[in-house]
Amino acid sequence: MTQETRSTCPYCGVGCGVIIESDGAQITGVRGDPDHPANFGKLCSKGSTLHLTAAAAVTQQVRLLHPMRREHRGERATRVSWDQALGFATETFAQVIRADGPDAVGFYISGQLLTEDYYVFNKLAKGLIGTNNIDTNSRLCMSSAVAGYKMTLGADAPPSCYDDVNHAGCIFIAGSNAAWAHPVLFRRIEEARAANPAMKIVCCDPRRTDTADIADLFLAIQPGTDVMLFHGMLHVMLWEGWVRHDWIGRHTSGFDELKATVRDCTPDSVAQVCGIRKEDLLEAARLFATSPATLSLYCQGLNQSTSGTAKNAALINLHLATAQIGRPGAGPFSLTGQPNAMGGREVGGLANLLSAHRDLANPQHRAEVAALWGVPSVPEKPGKTAVEMFQAAADGEIKALWIACTNPAQSMPDQATVRRALERAEFVVVQEAFLTTATCDYADLLLPATTWGEKTGTVTNSERRISRVRPAVPPPGSTRHDWAIAVDFARRLERKLRPGIATLFPYSTTAPEAGVEAVWNEHRESTRGRDLDITGMSYALLEKAPLQWPMRSGEAQGKLRLYEDGIFPTPDGKARFANVTYRPVAEPRESRFPFSLTTGRLRDQWHGMSRTGTLGRLFGHVAEPSVQMNPQDMQRRGLAEGDLVHLTSKRGSIVVPVQGTEQVGLSQAFMAMHWGGEYLGGLSNTGQPLAGVNALTTSAFCPTSKQPELKHAAVKILKAELPWSLLAVAWLPEGSALHVREELRQVMALFPFSSCVPFGRERAGVLLRAAGHEAPPDAVMDRIEHLFGVAGADALRYADRRKGQRRAMRLVRHGDEARLEGFVLAGDTSAQAWIKTLLQDELPAQAYGRLLLVPGAKTPVAVQSRGKQVCTCFNVTDMAISAQLAEGTGSEQERLDSLQAALQCGTNCGSCLPELKRMVRASMPLPQAA
């Protein structure tokens, strides 16, 4: 019998409500919650496939279901009981703490944890153990936003809400590809624009993303020049008399000092530094300052920078100078990247924070938290932030690491240092839901955690809205909730470190709903009287509807917008202009490294792809890893589409195919952040396995926020001369495809270049590419053919040992026709396009039996590719769209309506709408000459 459970999506910070459909222990469906105020029933391509990532076949292949222990590094982990696992962890942590002190251990946690999970871990580290060495992957995405808000407005509190897009006269988007990173919010922007055609949109980004396509004005600035842009806009506003001196005088301080700084940021100098037209700078300043209401939306392009805090503060300066804050449609709105980055900030889950936005450096704040927890004190020594923590472990200073719900062996910058840290640490605990993450390979102890659909607690989205996360099915295997794992460990450690003293963790783990609510209530009490006071927000109220903070005791609802009265949480009640200065990126381009590499998100993928990477359909839009370059740069370097290149920074090098696109500026390159060693393989010159894109990125960080500069690294791009190539593709039984991918990870490390991804939509498939200087030993090829199911006697095969060529094909009869079920092309892959199409589209293949074995065979007329997928929901390709548009007439909107009526593309989640609209515009006839 189908059950329905209201919960929250585990992906981006929009915080969409979902309704989970389940039958017994299995999640069977998901749809958007029409009553949730974050999304009103909408879901993106990732959210709408959540149920597929929870399928039984997926769970059995990729989930960590039982505690596992390695006796020695490099060995296969074996199953142990929870008592054995936590006993081992307790003994080891206690021994390290006694021998080397509390700061010899560190906790690295995640913005994908629930607020209750975060709270317990924070109390465990700072309250029980006595170390502030607890940080989170939110340091990599939101800490500059935290610092920017505190520097200017006095508290880490986004003042705006999603409804403001409906009231804005100008939306200023900086460093955010919301069309891909926050798709449901972007749908609301599109709808607001349609309802108010007078609305103006300005987009500021080095890349012309899908978000930029909606803009009336696109500022293609040079990477890292945001502070100069914002200062230049303020210079223009001052010159033109567009600032609100009356409001500034009543509600702010520090403006005179900032005026002196921006005096030298003239339009000519700013245009030169930023690489934009002076006229566009003037127009951006005018639109921002003179709009009835200006809303700025910003994300990692501002945050992930060595000037991250300065960028955030400089943009907020513009709001303060023009009084664009504290009213409908106006305000600086930082978009959180993860589902609960906000919740982590609220409980003090960063190395420099304490619960309820308290500062670790403030003695009164430390005393308040110590009193709340019932401990003598909270340590005052600053904790290690993310980059510092792994550097300390690499240096031998931190001996034991506890990693929960995050994958630093993929996501942290400067992977050589991170992996050295994981290897050198004496003890590594990984608390995870997915066994397939790269970090699991380094764990001495693996602890299985629950995940979406199984968890219970709360999350906070970008607009300060707290939503319930509810379990729809029981935890599989021996998995436990993250907070309950931490509580069980903490109680055991208490008996070692504080024998005979009442527990600091009086939360029931045998009655999870009661236990998690007890954690929540303690967190609520910690917020009393603070800027994020939620003492009026109970679980009972949250059962009825999500609520925004602050919501004090006795209040019926939370606050939609902040600072409407012009009073700010500073000692004098005034906002503060931040007199920040422009500084270039940490690693400017130079002759040896002439390209600027930027990283960012893909439309249909999430973080390290431990969840989305289980679905072949989510690889339809971007099927394989690549680095994007401007076609002119490719032409100058003699590079063709698909050529393999060495992408190299001062920290490492990877081999990856190159792709040309006008979206990327000259002397720039882009690569998606998701491609780690789980999907992109190869060997370095020293014989070490490569670690994906973050082998290249720099750990240089903002001195205030400690957030690393993931948005820029200086690189060189050189053609890789790897003459031998391989492509293997096969349909596999649903219950084995992901296992095969795991087996192939060992094979991938044998080649200078390799990539392995899921393949297929309705069926489960795997695709492997590799390249090398020469053919590998026969044993390697035999292993590949076996894994792809083409090693049997029923396979068609061809081999030329002298040329290093092998081909193997498996055809299976379906009724009256034979179809290609798997193939391996080695040594000559020039016929890959049509052979892959034959398999992918499940076309009749019997007529091509002999041709399949001929190296370099030309494409048969009857075998034509359907093209590249644009719409994930309905599997609509660019070729189908182009064919439909060729028959269209009328306006852009009429052509779009006709296209959607015919093919349905863009009518479900809407994630493909920006691309559809771009194709519609390109199909319009050129205007006739007068």
Automatic annotation (TrEMBL):
Superkingdom of origin organism: Bacteria
Record-linked SUPFAM superfamilies: ADC-like, Formate dehydrogenase/DMSO reductase, domains 1-3
Cofactor: Mo-bis(molybdopterin guanine dinucleotide); [4Fe-4S] cluster
InterPro entries named among the record's database cross-references: Asp_de-COase-like_dom_sf (IPR009010), BFD-like_2Fe2S-bd_dom (IPR007419), BFD-like_2Fe2S-bd_dom_sf (IPR041854), CT_Nitrate-R-NapA-like (IPR041957), MoPterin_dinucl-bd_dom (IPR006657), Mopterin_OxRdtase (IPR006656), Mopterin_OxRdtase_4Fe-4S_dom (IPR006963), Mopterin_OxRdtase_prok_CS (IPR006655)
Recorded GO MF terms: 4 iron, 4 sulfur cluster binding; metal ion binding; molybdopterin cofactor binding; oxidoreductase activity
Record keywords: 4Fe-4S, Iron, Iron-sulfur, Metal-binding, Molybdenum, Nitrate assimilation, Oxidoreductase
Domain (4Fe-4S Mo/W bis-MGD-type) ranges: 2-58
Pfam families: Fer2_BFD (PF04324), Molybdop_Fe4S4 (PF04879), Molybdopterin (PF00384), Molydop_binding (PF01568)
One GO CC term, this protein: oxidoreductase complex
One GO process term, biological-process aspect: cellular respiration
Family as reported in the entry's similarity comment: Belongs to the prokaryotic molybdopterin-containing oxidoreductase family. NasA/NapA/NarB subfamily.
Descriptive protein name: Molybdopterin-dependent oxidoreductase
Species this protein is from: Caenimonas aquaedulcis
Lineage: Bacteria, Pseudomonadati, Pseudomonadota, Betaproteobacteria, Burkholderiales
